[in-house]
Amino acid sequence: MKHNETHISSYLSLGTVLVVLLLLTTISVLVTGWHLGPFTVAAALLIACGKAATVIIHFMHMKFESLFLKLMISGVFLLFALVIGITFIDYLLR
Amino acid sequence: MSDMSDKENGNYISYLRYQGKYRGILSWLLSTDHKKIGLMYLYSITVFFFVAVVLGLLMRLELIAPGKTIMEPQTYNGLFTIHGIIMIFVIVIPALPAIFGNFFLPIMIGARDVAFPKLNLFSYYLFLTGAILGVLSQFAGDGPPDTGWTFYVPYSAESSTNVIFALTAAFILGFSSILTGLNFIVTIHRMRAPGMGWFRMPLFPWALYATGWIQVLATPIIGITLLMVIAERVLSIGFFDPSLGGDPVLFQHLFWIYSHPAVYIMILPAMGIVTEIFPTFSQKPVFGYTAILISSLAIAFVGYFVWGHHMFTAGISVGSRWFFSFLTFIVAIPSAIKVFNWISTMYGGSIDLKPPLLYAISFIFLFMIGGFTGLTLGALAANIQVHDTSFVVAHFHYIIFGGMGFATFAGMHYWFPKMFGRMYNNKIANIAWGINFTGFNLLYFPQFVIGIQGMPRRYFDYLPQFQTGHVISTIGGFILFIGLILMVYNFVRSKRVGEIAPANPWHGVTLEWQIPSPPPHENFDIIPEIKTKPYFFGSTDENKSS
Amino acid sequence: MAGQIPHTEQTDSEAGKLGMWIFLFTELFLFGGLFLVYAVFRAKYSAEFHTGAAELNALIGTLNTVFLLVSSMTIAMSLTAIQKNKLNLALLLITVTILLAALFMMNKYFEWSHKFHYKLYPGSEVMRNLPHGEILFFGLYYMMTGLHAVHVLVGMILLSVNLFKIRSGKVTSSNFLLLENSALYWHLVDIIWIFIFPLLYLIT
Predict the structure, then answer these.
(1) What is the domain count for chain A?
(2) One domain for residues A34 and A73
(3) A35 within a domain of the structure (yes/no)
(4) Is C139 on the interface with B (CB under 8 A)?
(5) What is the DSSP string of B150-217?
(6) Does B319 touch chain A (CB under 8 A)?
(7) Which residue in A71, B64, B350, B448 is deepest, having the highest Cβ count within 10 Å?
(8) Facing C1 at nearest CB: one of B195, B245, B527
(9) Is the model's pTM score more than 0.80?
(10) Domain that residue A33 falls in
(11) Phi and psi at residue B264, to the nearest 5°
């Protein structure tokens, strides 16, 4: 079975990605120790998004996948965000 | 043997006769041939359909007079619940992708099968399991569920009946739907014949593509929601229980976030089917191929954002109601575009009013009534009057039964010769159509009228002023039943003794008409190379590749 | 023609990978429903969600996060190994992944039994007496981490299957779709936790 893309991630690059993820995790834990009030959730979520994106792009190889797949994963998250947003049109304005 | 009409070469064996690894009944039950799987779905769905039809007729008998007629109120509640569960989850959501999608998607794109044939068979058995579980919910334990197919909390969390049975059945059926959608998306991406670029693909596959994405992205939400209701019942988890801080309306949000896109799973393939029928029976290309394509994708996309129109009276915010009403009007536009395109396809064409076209034209008529009344429901002020009345019941039956149902009958009449290698009797088909059309309108139109006048839905009893409407409706139901029986009889009989069908009885131009009727096991001897645009009907310059 | 592939049977690994990605999208939406419920109730009961989160042990949560992140790296590395035909290294890396997953599950077991010990579970007397926001917080905690744990278990089984298939020569340097798809599944399990962790453990 021929594998189309020939890119093989090096162990070093994967190790580097892990370091980045651990760093982001540390920041995440520290940030929530500070009193940012309502921004705590936003900050934590933002960092989580960064970590997830890192896993998707590097560990899951999305960087080397087709444009279609990149569009679809973005579309999936966008759709989900829209659904939550629209639900909040109800809850925030009640 | 009579299945072997139209021999292309001496080795032609139709898929019906082909025996691969297994013999006899196992060659069907364990077959990964998309055509056989499509037929297994057809037979199972037909059986469950008639079960649900009978349940519906029993409801109509009860409603022919006010007060108790033939059953207790609790029985009536159980009936409309299981009628809905079977019709929605076992018939209308699965049917078109599972039957015609399975049978014809690979052929119409020039493939030998779907991307994952074993997964396809697994989808079928998941479907069968869920369907049987749904029926079993009637008999085991504490009694048939009485919550309505919509399982609203708090009642679904409190009802002492077999709710968990039904929830599990729906979950399993949902999983089957997801896997079918996944299979079709990958099939369309990876298995189109050489030369068949995206914009040379016919519109039924395009419809299945849009549908596949809805199946894949919306169904998981109902999955988790059903699990939450089970958690509510078993663990008192509290998400939907006000006494624990929860919100019952949140269930409605979650439920309709799936169930509204689900209606587009129902209608998009139906529109795809009639989009195939119009060019064939007008002998000219589809008018506005790109417009129809984009409108399918637009319906799939915008359809995600209208779910709150089921909840206008539930207590959601004003802003929310505005938003959903507006989007509901927007989503009607792509459907209207399709109607213009279908009519324009027929205009100036060489019309052959065979049964498929008859059903397709009546599809437009019934679908439009359903669609317009949907706008009535989508208008905030009007909604207050008609929400939870039989107006709603009439609306969705016009759309689902008049729309998707009639499109299914159209597809059956269109593709029957290809699937079984036989022609059915046109005269009987036309008579059955007439009875179906008459019965259908008698059954459902009065429900609009009494609905506006105030007849509530899911009510066992009613005020005497509604009785006339109910009587007409019940009579219509039985007329429709006769028409359905006649139509199915025509098919069953013709399958055995009908005139042998040629490969292309309707002079169609899509790929399924270029292979024998019935198709051989592998569909194509040689995978075709596509050189023309889709719906290419003639010679000369119009032919050049797009 | 661009995008057209010569017609073959089921040996299309791109199809297999696309199928897996689509399945992962469904998983995202499955958990998404729970995140939606979380969002709604967090907005309504922010103070009580804070209090609830304080009951959780952020250290164990962080440890579990680290376990999963490392395991994501090891499974990604196992793909590199198999592509380079280093079968024994691949086996080792997959085994480490499974062990890290087992550590995760052990932590989860301790966390849950600790709470059960204090009768803090859905439907219990203790739970019912909590403020509403806390009841919902813990309901979400159990359902989200519970569903996630089920997926960890399934992932462990999938990865074990890969061990057997590599040993028996069914998964090789030119035929590793199963490992690739299992790795994708595992990364999804990791991603879900990446979101669960801050939302349940860190918002205090």
Answers:
(1) 2
(2) no
(3) yes
(4) yes
(5) TT-TTHHHH--SSHHHHHHHHHHHHHHHHHHHHHHHHHHHH-PPTT--GGGS-HHHHHHHHHHHHHHH
(6) yes
(7) B448
(8) B195
(9) yes
(10) 11-60
(11) -80, -25
Q: pLDDT of B366-417, one tens digit each? A: 999 999 999 999 999 999 999 999 999 999 999 999 999 999 999 999 999 9
* % chain B with pLDDT above 70: 97
Q: Are both A47 and A87 inside the same structural domain?
A: no
Identify whether A5 is part of a domain: no
Counting as contact any 3 or more CB pairs under 8 A, the partners of C are: A, B
Q: In whole angstroms, give the CA distance from residue B280 to residue B535.
A: 8
The partner residue sitting opposite A44, judged by closest CB among C83, C191, C203, is: C203
* CA distances from residue B49 to B43, B84, B89, B487, B532 in whole angstroms, order as listed: 10, 11, 11, 14, 40
Contact at CB, C4 and B194, closer than 8 angstroms: yes
The pLDDT value given to residue C5: 42
pLDDT: is B111 or B23 the higher one?
Answer: B111
- Residues A26 and A55 reside in one and the same domain: yes
In a domain, A39, yes or no: yes
How does pLDDT run along chain C (204 residues), one tens digit per residue? 334 444 444 458 899 999 999 999 999 999 999 999 999 999 999 999 999 999 999 999 999 999 999 999 999 999 999 999 999 999 999 999 999 999 999 999 999 999 999 999 999 999 999 999 999 999 999 999 999 999 999 999 999 999 999 999 999 999 999 999 999 999 999 999 999 999 999 886
Contact A41/C at CB under 8 A: yes
What is the CATH code of the structural domain delimited by C32-202? Answer: 1.20.120.80
Q: Which residues of A touch C184 (CB under 8 A)?
A: 60
Among residues C7, A89, C198, the alpha carbon closest in space to that of B327 is found at A89
- Most C-contacting residue of A8, A12, A17, A21 (CB-CB within 10 A), to test interface: A21
Phi, psi of B64, deg, nearest 5? -70, -20
Q: How many C-beta atoms surround the C-beta of residue B439 within 10 A?
A: 20
Predicted confidence band at B546 (pLDDT cuts at 50, 70, 90)? very low
Mark whether A31 and A70 lie in a shared domain.
Answer: no
- The size of chain A, in residues, is 94
> Which of A79, A91, A93 is nearest residue B318 as measured by Cβ atoms?
A93
Nearest to B302 by CA among B331, B334, B262: B331
Yes or no: say if C32 and B220 are a contact pair by the CB < 8 Å rule.
yes
Category of B193 on φ-ψ map: left (φ > 0), alpha (ψ -120 to 50) or beta = beta
In angstroms, the CA C90 to CA C162 distance is 10
Q: What is the ipTM of this complex?
A: 0.94
**pLDDT at position A7 over 90:** no
Nearest to B38 by CA among B223, B208, B292, B210: B208
Fold of B36-538: Cytochrome C Oxidase; Chain A (1.20.210)
* Per-residue tokens: B148: 């309505």
Residue B296 to residue B189: CA distance in whole angstroms: 17
User: How close does chain C come to A50, measured CA to CA in Å?
Assistant: 10
pLDDT score recorded for residue C2: 38
C193: Cα separation from own chain's centroid: 6
The residues near B181 (Cβ < 8 Å, ≥ 6 apart) are B97, B211, B212, B213, B214, B215, B216, B219
Rounded to whole angstroms, how far apart are CA atoms B187 and B193? 11
